[in-house]
Amino acid sequence: MSFDYSLGKPCDHFVYQELLGVDYQTRTRVNMPKALANNKIKVYVDGVEIPEIGLYSEAKLYFGNPGPYRFIPNESDLLYLALGDGNPVYIQMLTGTSIRTDDVVKDLQVKIPNLKVYNESNHVIIQNGIESGLSGFRMVDPRLNGQVLTSRNAARVIGAYAQAGISPGKVINHQKVYPGWSLNRDYLTFEENKYIIEFERSLPNKNPVVKVSYYAQTSACRRCNGSGYEYDYTVKNNTYSTSKNGDLLVQEFDKFLFTKSGSHFKWKWIGSDIQDQIGTKLITRDSTGVLSLNIDSTFQTYSDIKAQQLGTFRFQNVTDEEYPGYVADVTISTDAQDPTLVSIIIDITDKTGKVVTVSRIVEGPNAVSPLTNPDLALRAKYESAWKFRA
To answer: What is the distance between the terminal CA atoms of the chain, rounded to a whole angstrom?
Structure first.
């Protein structure tokens, strides 16, 4: 573990899965925070995201009988299937006296591509996914259909149903597992801008856990406290997310080097003057050594702090992989068209001698936007790097 020298970054005011209170009498009302900025919210119940229309199960048809199957030509070899309210169509089955379940699955998947067909415990399953809509499908009983069918075809369908274990006329629909919801003004209170989530019916669980992701108003954002900038702590499972070993070494030195000197809200001694040197006449082909000196100086300051930490705060247990060794190599590249855009790649060692790399594209004050020239070789080479703006 180590100190966390936090850096500021623009805050998007997004609140991820905040636990909200539920009216446990009705289980239909959830109070939203007054800091809500817009209606772009996501609702989660018992750990599952619930769409606004509700959460539906898949429409599944199970062949009641397991394989192998016996479909006899011209006797028991037709299914009569309709999607939604559409007209039914015949599905020709594989024929034989001992057909493997997997062979039936492969054949049906080709013949009914709009549905998913698979093998589950040696039973054929036909499924209509949510992405296909909520219409479901039907296994039409040919004896009750309005169309005129030959008795021979009707017998072939009924025979195939019997072999598969399908009830004639069975309708397979999507079932609504969780009710739909809407975001509404709360007219039961006199408070302004008070919103609630209202479910169509009571949630099925007697003690539902409801969480909501939403955008907060800037003035009420708890991530940045209304400043518009947040610091880079990450919280997961109600605790701070931490780095260790080589990742921590890279993270800490990155913060030391690319924080502008004197800008930290608490520790004014953290940082360097690299941003001030970029974009000036100091950055030329013959004078990149000035940056290297700045990097070496900053690394020495960082090493001194780690030594102090190791000696004073022994309970923090600085590992050898987290303890800085020396600067092994510095590569500084500038672009001829935009001298304010500089790539810095630094190889540093830890106490064990292992080399880790810190790299950034840095843009100096009043820099020319590289977006004006998409052919910048430097930008193309390091387009995946995170760009720091002073």
So the answer is: 28
Same domain? 104 vs 189: no
Please, what's the largest Cα pairwise distance for the chain?
Answer: 95
For residue 346, count CB atoms less than 10 angstroms from its CB and return exposed for 0-12, middle for 13-18, buried for 19 or more.
Answer: buried
Of all residues in the chain, the percent with pLDDT exceeding 70 is: 75
Cα 180 to Cα 178: distance, rounded to the nearest angstrom: 7
Asked if residue 19 has pLDDT above 50, the reply is yes
Residues near 346 by beta carbon (within 8 Å), at least 6 away in sequence:
253, 257, 295, 327, 329, 330, 331, 357, 358, 359
Task: Compute the mean pLDDT over every residue in the chain, rounded to the nearest whole number.
Answer: 78
Neighbour count for residue 376 (Cβ, 10 Å): 18
Strands 355-363 and 387-389: parallel
Report the amino acid identity of residue 257.
L
Do 271 and 368 fall within a single domain? yes
In a shared domain, residues 253 and 206: no
User: Hunting for tokens 């309709």 — which residue is that?
Assistant: 82
Tens digits of residue pLDDT in 250-268: 878 887 887 777 776 667 7
For 301-325, the pLDDT digits (tens) are 888 887 777 666 555 567 788 888 8
Q: Kindly report the backbone phi and psi dihedral angles of residue 134, in degrees, each rounded to the nearest multiple of 5, phi listed first.
A: -115, 25
pLDDT at position 364, please?
Answer: 54
CATH code, domain with 329: 3.10.450.40
Closest CA to 108 of 171, 72, 58, 63: 63
Q: How many CB atoms lie within 10 A of CB 6?
A: 17
Range of the domain at 165: 59-172
Domain boundary among 116, 149, 172: 172
Please state the rounded mean pLDDT for residues 119-145.
82
Instruction: Give the tokens for residue 31.
Output: 């109070």
Helices (DSSP H) in the chain: which residue ranges?
A: 101-111, 151-164, 245-258, 274-277, 289-312, 377-381
Kindly report whether the global pTM for this prediction surpasses the value 0.70: no
